[in-house]
Amino acid sequence: MTEAAARRAPGAPCWVSLIVHGLSATEEFYGRLFGWEFRPGPEELGPYVRALLHGKEVAGIGQLPPGRHLPIAWTTYLASEDADVTAEAIRSCGGTVAVGPIDAGRAGRLAIASDPGGAVFGVWQPGEHLGTALAGTPGTPVWNELVTRETSSVAKFYQAVFGFDTEAVVSADFDYQTLSLAGRPVAALHGVGHGLPRDRGPHWMTYFEVADTDEAAARVVELGGQVIQPPREASGGRLATVADPEGAVFTIQRTSEH
After folding, report:
1. By Cβ atoms counted within 10 A, which residue in 7, 98, 138, 196 is the most buried?
2. Are strands 184-191 and 141-148 parallel, antiparallel or unpaired?
3. What SUPFAM superfamilies does the entry give (predicted)?
């Protein structure tokens, strides 16, 4: 178990959050799945809680205002030293800024944007809140991956905005690029062509670590969620793609080292 609340390099995934219709039912689901406890705030974001493991912040969950019908999805936030400068870069490189940049009190400053393919992500300029404060233990985010049609054009966007180095997997039938900062892989782009879910389009996928993928997938169903792709072996460990009761999709992963 490692504490991960250092200031992230600009571009590195630093936080994940989810905005739902039913906040208390969602807290119940993730509390029972991952052992999360919840603390309210910041108030500037409306009804919002931070999920804690061992007292350390690992994710955020907020409530949609009544009558708002946005897609229910986990959002990956990428770190920024200046959210306004990053927002300008997003626009000039063909992306869209949908929300902000706005202040979240003393916690930091944020924007919600989408890349040229339409995948939504957040930008977080840390104030008092640096991001996910725990890593390497079940119930924590372990990886973030953009699922898109093809990686070559969208890779240029993320390189230009965030300064990633990219490294493609050389394979005729596998379109995959790793995003690195200072030589360290921090996220990936996965081109799936026509395999992209029609109802979702390009999207960032959050991976959460679990102790046992099969057991966690069964628990998701018991708690009212669903399994979208059953447990399978992959290079990073055993994975399953699941959705919570409101339909937010995420991947659970038991890493190979465990």
Report:
1. 138
2. parallel
3. Glyoxalase/Bleomycin resistance protein/Dihydroxybiphenyl dioxygenase
Q: What is the DSSP letter of 181?
A: E
Under DSSP, the state recorded for 9 is P
pTM: 0.94
Fill in the DSSP letter of residue 143: E
Residues in the chain, total: 258
Q: How many CB atoms lie within 10 A of CB 92?
A: 10
Residue type, 236: G
**Hey, what are 238's tokens?**
């055993």
Token duo for residue 17: 């959050």
Distant-in-sequence, close-in-space partners of 53: CB < 8 Å, separation ≥ 6: 34, 35, 36, 37, 134, 137, 139, 140
How many C-beta neighbours within 10 Å does residue 97 have? 18
Q: How many CB atoms lie within 10 A of CB 30?
A: 23
Phi-psi region at 11: left, alpha or beta (left = phi > 0; alpha = psi -120 to 50)? left
Tokens of 110: 């944020």
- Enclosing H/E stretch for 199: none
